[in-house]
Design a protein that fits this description.
Blueprint (H helix, E strand, L loop, with lengths): L6 E9 L4 H14 L3 E5 L3 E3 L10 E10 L4 H14 L14 E7 L4 E2 L4 E2 L8 H10 L12 H7 L6 E3 L6 H8 L1
Antiparallel strand pairs: 1-4, 1-5, 2-4, 3-4, 3-8, 6-7
Helix pairs in contact: 3-4
Length: 179
């Protein structure tokens, strides 16, 4: 694949600190400001924490983006900058976070480097990724597992709660003051 070719990538966004929905929207805005054309957005889902050391629920969504003249590593570097600009300093997977951006797929590219693994190595095990991804790309085929997203979602062992989120006035402020 040449660098000038337009690619389609899928990025998951998650937040469980502060104004979670606002953080997701700022993450989408950051993707656009990083010269990624956001072509589809899933609904927002409230999800229980999986594999972390806290119990604050997340809001999660997935974006389909198009980009030109950017390698997977460059895309990931831009995503890390967005996280940093939105206040994420701790990169531990087990910590709460204002924003988390994960590159799920970069077209059908497969790669393993110390910086980036594609496709994301755990996406097929995570309902909080598969539910919104199946909403916007149900027929996208995982380039290693050779199954579409709908099939991966049907086969996952992750039974964690993933519920469509609907905003209410001050919902995150109410949650924070009661928590």
């Amino acid at each position: 694949m040449s660098e000038s070719e337009t690619i389609t990538a899928y990025i998951s966004l998650g937040s469980n600190l502060g104004d979670r929905a606002g953080n997701l929207l700022l993450g989408v805005r950051g993707l656009m400001e990083a010269s990624f054309g956001v072509t589809k957005l899933s609904a927002i889902y409230e999800t229980e924490p999986v594999g972390v050391d806290h119990d604050e629920p997340y809001l999660n969504m997935v974006a389909e983006v198009r980009a030109e003249s950017v390698t997977p590593t460059q895309m990931m570097a831009r995503m890390l900058r967005i996280e940093y600009l939105l206040g994420r300093r701790e990169k531990s997977q087990k910590m709460p976070r204002s924003i988390d951006l994960d590159l799920l797929f970069y077209s059908s590219v497969t790669m393993v480097t110390p910086f980036l693994t594609l496709p994301h190595p755990r996406l097929h095990k995570r309902s909080f990724v598969l539910v919104p991804l199946a909403e916007i790309a149900p027929e996208f085929v995982h380039p290693i597992l050779h199954k579409d997203i709908r099939a991966l979602h049907a086969e996952t062992n992750d039974a964690s709660d993933v519920t469509r989120w609907y905003p209410s006035p001050n919902s995150d402020r109410i949650r924070a003051s009661n928590g």
